[in-house]
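Onboarding guide, step 5: your first structure request.
Type a short instruction followed by the sequence, for example:

Predict the 3D structure of this protein.
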Amino acid sequence: MNLQEFIINFRELHSDEQNQEERFVDSFCEYLESNEIITNYELSYRLQVGLQMNAYSYDEEQNKLTLIVADYENFDYGATVSKALIQKPYKRALKYLKKARNDLVNIIEETSADYPLSQLIYEMDYENTEINVLVLSNRIYKANSPLELEKIDGKEISYQIWDLERLFQLVNETQGIEDIEIDFKELSSENLSMIKVIDNNEEFDCFIGYISGELLAKLYEKWGQRLIERNVRSYLQAKGNVNKGIKNTLRKEQEMFIAYNNGISTVAESIEVETSDSGKIYTINKIRGLQVVNGGQTTASMYYTKKDDKLDLSNVYVQMKLTVIKSTEKMNIMTSKISEYANTQNKISISDLKANHHVLIQLENLSRKTMIPSNSGVKSNVRWFFERARGQYLVDLSRESTKKRKDDFKQTNPKSKLLSKTDIAKYFMSWYCFPHKVSKGGETNFKEFMEFMDQENIEVNQNFYKKLIGMAILFKECDELVKIAKYPAYKANIITYTIAALAYSNKNINLLQIWENQSVTDLIRIELQNLIPLTWEHINNPPVAGSNITSWCKKEECWISYIKK
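The system replies with structure tokens like these:
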């Protein structure tokens, strides 16, 4: 999938939505949250003269607030955007922050979509809170010069610009290692020669050697973010001492690089080799499924320094460890351990590794082979599509080579039936009466969901999958009813608490029947309609008047007091 294909496919995801800008922001934030760039985001819309806000993310543990604004132009989708235009939403976000610091919470209605954010800003410890602005653009930002930073009440507010090209890079990097197959004879005239360390281990083969900076840069040039884990975030900011140190060494002391640098640790699924006459030196001809699990910054910095400074890196050498894992079943566990224990700059985060958890792999397999029931008597060709890695849907769609095949893919996998990891977690945890955990946000709740699945040792079979889709249909129905009721704020909290209340009070709901019908009954719909206003009333009346509603909904006390009524 190239950038233009990604832009077309990503736009289609929200092209038929009533509020396309809101859906664009929501979709963008889902990607960022699933990659832990933001955490527990909330939509929070306001647009008036000089002020703008679309969403926010607040990390209580890190005491970090991220304000999210959109540069969204429907008629200029995917075009180049200038620095002057991208600066505007940043400035409007700063004016919003300044207004919220003063008296915005006392002016707007409590039912306003951005009331929770305005209250949070008004009450927070401003001096000790890290604040930055994310500008999400549906265009391409090519200007190299930075935006003009501004101070609000003595605090300089930093920013990040996420355009469609940067999102495209992020989607590519999360797709895993399946398609990386390197033929060194085709790629370069250089040999990659290594020593085999262990010869009798049934689980893996380990090789030690070195790779030239030139060859490493070529690998990154061809496979980019898919070669390393999560490097879009860590490298493009270009702020860390690690990056500066690497770049300075490459520019001034190339011969010292191998002495100064810790090297890279890699894993692979399989290799093709030639051995020397002595049998001790192995020349690597092909590698399948290569991943740099540690040393991602070294890899990316090598490429970008060569590109930006036009350097010859053929005399730069990087120490390299290659572990070829023989067992597919143990690939994920060993990769995790190697990354965790390696003494280098970056390690793969826990949430990345969760994508390879057996629960999610099984759900993915079930979603690909389980078609929805047909009411016409003809075999159905429609299914729900579960994304084990964020962006899988767009990548799979782009792999279809013709318009006919793309249309067939979209007919079989309608975007209305697209499920992410955080989606299935909130459906499940809502049904199992943990609305306070769902209210903590997508990634936090997802981790709770995975822990629950492990602790309870729940078998993921077709029956479980069909019930899970029943939960999804129920949740989506409640979502629509809340939209119709036009509650201006706390929609996510209303939905999860309503679903939990329904599951708690009505033990007769048949999820398999919902699966069979692919819809809820009129009786269930009426129950939801009756519960929604009760939920709204409950969450808006915390025991301490004036308490932050979002924080209240995250407490177990909120759920316990609800079911006692």
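Each response can be followed by summary notes, for example: The radius of gyration is 26 Å.
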